Amino acid sequence: MMEPAAYLLLSGILFGIGVVGVVARKNVLIILMSVEIMLNGVNVAFIAVGSQLGDVTGSVFAFMVMTVAAAEAAVGLAILIAIYRLKETIDITELSVLKW
Amino acid sequence: MEQILFIIFGAIAVGGAIMVVTRRHPMASALYLILTLFAVAALFVLRQAHFLAAIQVIVYAGAVVVLFIFVIMLINVPENKLPVERATGLRLLGIIAAGMFILEAALLIRRFVMPPGTGADAGSIQAVGRALFTDYLLAFEITSVLLLAAVVGAIALAKKKD
Fold first, then answer.
1. Which end of chain A is more exposed for a tag (fewer CB within 10 A), N or C?
2. Residue B29 reports pLDDT greater than 80
3. How close are the terminal C-alpha atoms of chain A, in Å?
4. Which CATH class is domain A7-91?
5. Do residues A73 and A34 touch, judged by C-beta distance below 8 A?
6. Pair A12, B106: CB distance under 8 Å
7. pTM here?
8. Distance from CA of A97 to the nearest CA of B (A)
9. Which parts of chain A have pLDDT scores under 50?
10. Could you tell me if B89 lies within 8 Å of chain A, comparing CB atoms?
């Protein structure tokens, strides 16, 4: 198996692309998808190092990350549906009632 | 051979991720997200983590993204009402933040020496299953409670109040 260094760099790149999506986009759906990209980047790092060290903890932790990501996507989308029913918009700059 | 496959699937994953972040219509982003998730599953297979690759395809690409697509179609924002993405300073800040993350990852990798691979079986379904039900049993049971909470919460938040 090859060295995990390249996998860690790929993990960082995926995480960075997810960060750009969360910070720079206004569509709430695309922000939620960018969070999923970030979580996938983290999973790549977990699996790469876990398989290099022969430790099953990497796989177990990535499994937990996937579970939490699925739960969080479900609840986030439910919140989005409730907000859309109320305000008829998915633009995050208009959902600023809690801002100071 | 492994390097070539890594470069191919890594390029597909990064290209798909960039397309997710830059499309205007969320449905196009969802389809590119599926492409990215499949490429990441292929990378998992390259690291001999077959169980996680299968779970990635079944759960992530097969349930989470399908949920996204359901919500996109349910909300059904018409094309002319999609949020207008002006080029604000936030875009540049986002790219700078991402650049810093990638630079940090690259610098850490240069300093960080990994021990040589042990070749032990760390990703097969037997190994992960045994670990999930012995060492990590508490975490496993707690995630089942977490999923129950997510299901109840999602239904309570999204149902019509009448």
1. C
2. yes
3. 52
4. mainly alpha
5. no
6. yes
7. 0.93
8. 18
9. none
10. no
